[in-house]
Amino acid sequence: MPMKIWERIWFSKIDPEGLKYFRWAIGGLFFFIFLGLAPNWIDFYGSNGIQSFNGEGRFADQDPIGLFYVFDHPFFLWGFWAAGLAASVLLLWGRYTRAAILALFLLEVSMIHRNRFVCNGEDLVLRMLLFYALFLPLEFKKGVLKKDWPDVWPLRLMQINVAAIYVFSLPAKFAQDPTWLTGDLMYYALNNSMWSRWPWPSMTYNGILSKLMTYTALVAEISFPILVWFKKTRLSMVFLMMAFHFSIGIILDNLTFFSLSMLVAFTVYLPIERSNLVSARIS
Fold first, then answer.
1. Rounded alpha-carbon distances, angstroms, from residue 35 to 30, 39, 40, 246
2. 14: phi > 0 → left, psi -120 to 50 → alpha, else beta; which?
3. DSSP assignment, residue 230?
4. Which of 119, 141, 187, 283 has CB atoms 3.0–4.6 Å from 210's, for a disulfide?
């Protein structure tokens, strides 16, 4: 019995056609990331960019890791930018996906280690997703025979890592910010001009709405890493968390791309059979 459970968790088969939603999501997000980075690409990652130098003409805090450390001339940097944009298009198209994922992974690692000042939570989430995606068959193929379906383990590792984001972030939230426990977190966020896009801050003045929003977020984040593993509650939790992060991206500034990266991450939980059923009904 334990061996059967182990086999089902790690080595059950998945229809690769159902992975297209993840491929479309991550390819589309990277397409807009590279488009958005274009005006500041050299400022962020060039040798004459925003970060200070050490005596050797390198970024002072740069790790000697990644493509940008070796090839730091603007000609090469623009070539890397073009490669990232092309790789995202290949993912959307469904061709040469292994090479595209590898290119995006190397670029993401290089961007993180080049300039930490512009590295955010979405970079770490996307780096993790890209690493495990290296082992997934994302190439566009229809009608793959069941005997040729791949093992689920790369997808399972993605799922575990996404759930672990909430397992480890919740204790940090409680330890570092007492307003999560008092229910005032959303009050301060929605009334902060640096963070908020909320057009009606006066609605939070009595504290009722802000406490409701804060505690609802906590309940969702506590429940998700538990209930997402049960078949009856998986889809509900996935769509709840998608709506939650979509709302964050709308009402809070500076969290847009992190929210989008989490929306991409949640696609790894969508049941393959249900995805194929939806595709069949649409077609």
1. 8, 8, 10, 21
2. beta
3. S
4. 187
> What is the per-residue pLDDT for 69?
81
Tokens of 246: 């979509």
Q: Where along the chain do its domains lie? A: 1-151, 162-274
Task: Write down the pTM of the prediction.
Answer: 0.89
* 281 pLDDT tier (thresholds 50, 70, 90): low
Which letter, b or e, does each residue of 134-158 get, where b requires 16 or more Cβ atoms within 10 Å of its Cβ?
eebbbeeeeeeeeeebbebbbbbbb
Task: Report the C-alpha gap between 161 and 236 in whole angstroms.
Answer: 19
Chain position carrying tokens 């495990």: 132
Half-sphere exposure of 137 (CA within 13 A, CB side): 15
Asked if 257 and 120 touch (Cβ cutoff 8 Å), the reply is yes
Beta bridge partners of 13: 151
Q: What is the pLDDT of residues 221-235, one digit of tens each?
A: 999 999 999 988 999
- SS3 for 74-119, per residue? HHHHHHHHHHHHHHHHHHHHCCCHHHHHHHHHHHHHHHHHHCHHHC
Angle between helix axes 153-176 and 256-266 (nearest 10 degrees) is: 140
